Amino acid sequence: MKITLLRLAILCTAFQTIASCKKAANPAETAEKQVTQPAQTSAANPNLYTTVGTNIQEFNELKDAGSENTRLQLGAYWTDFDPTGFYLAPNASMQITVQQLLGTRRPQILIGTYSRYTNKWNPQVINLNTGTNTITADSNGGLIWVRFGTNQTPNSKVRITFNSGHQRVPIYIKNATTATSWASQIATYSNVPDVILIGDRVYQVYSRSRAQSTQTQDNNYVLAKADQTMNVQEAFSGLDGSAPQHQRNVNSRLLLTETDNPDYWMVATYYRTAYVTAAAPAAFTSMIGGQDGWGPWHELGHMHQQQPWKWSTLGEVTVNIYSLAVERAMGVTPSRLKRENKWAAALTWIANPSTTKDFNSSSMAGDVWTRLCMFEQLRLAFGENFYKNLHKVTRVEQPAVSTDAQKMRYFMLKSCTVSGRNLTNFFKKWGFQVDASVYTEIANLGLPQPVVEPSTLSE
């Protein structure tokens, strides 16, 4: 699989105002409501599995994506909105009623799915009022979502009734929707362009035509593997609930969407990951559970990268410590580093005795993969808990670092304290060109040398 051609590091800007939804009779859904629902649900909409696609839905306020981003020390905001199961056609109007159940704050309606279409890269966003709201779509329309977050203490809850103007979309719920129901929905809701699939940890959005062409695939398996990807990367990040800092993101799912934008192969940015039509099978078929799932593992990895130890040359490097964790969990062997012979350049680099070689130099052969080998050597030397604990320390300390030098220093010192070893020789062999004071700080920690020098390790 190719990896992302270009990656956004942008804030999502220019949110437009206007948006919303509607619902029709739901014959295709009746049977699936009797199926036992999965345990993991949405905190914003705790009744998601039983109310999505119905005319009355309730939503709880959560900590907003920015607050969670700071707590977890991440880069891109996570998906902070829930699907309604409805679509608003281009230029169409819909009417909804908002009832305040708790508190005073109200959610927003989003019309359109981030990155789904080139012509509508970001959705319309409209603030809701209590009582009746009439919402008109722009010339593109789109799926309808609800965002309900605050940087204060969450204390509000609303009930939204979809009165008119909205259209139902095909909805697949992991381990609940039957193959018969899915086929019926695809046939029945034929006037909408997109479908929604709901896992425990992901939302998948892609074209109705793709849903038709993959109608007989095992969607439960696909969603299970996407969920597993998320769970593995969170476990690798030490999100074990052992302290308030180590609770998982309250925005419990990430969006994977098909996109028609040819400028991107796969992309991860604020609120979503996206996959151009030609690359979409890696995310939306059984490919996600095997070697060719590296692309979505990689994109979801971007959503887990901690920023205090991601300096400027590591954007496409530390992301893959999460990809490798998923690869191991999926049982893919040998690892990508080994099967593509990525270790050769790394070991050659380490063997170079020059004291002026620079880990961050563009002259490093196979730089992205070679640098990744350095991070993998730390795991080989100190085990899975090394990165779990590094993530934990970073969340607790919330370091104020911004420059490459500050981030390198932080990573070096914390790697030593987390491993309990003096890693000076390791960092020098890799060409970490930092101020001499950093090595003095490491020496002052009074830690023993590693039992086995990590730079000698490979697969």
TrEMBL record:
Instruction: Kindly give the SMART domains that the UniProt entry links to this protein.
Output: M60-like
State whether keyword Ribosomal protein applies.
Answer: no
Please list the residue ranges annotated as the Peptidase M60 domain.
Answer: 79-383
Q: Which organism is this entry from?
A: Pedobacter yulinensis
Write down a Pfam family by its short name. Answer: Peptidase_M60
- What keywords would UniProt list here? Signal
- The region annotated as signal peptide is 1-19
Q: Which InterPro entries match?
A: M60-like_N, Pep_M60_3, Peptidase_M60_dom, TCAF
Which protein are we looking at? Answer: Peptidase M60 domain-containing protein
